[in-house]
Amino acid sequence: GGTVLSSWARTIVDALSAQGIDPKPVLAAAGFSEDAFRDPNARHPVAATARLWKLAAERAGHPAFGLKVTK
Question: Which of 11, 19, 31, 57 sits between 20 and 30 A of 70, alpha carbons compared?
Answer without folding.
Answer: 31
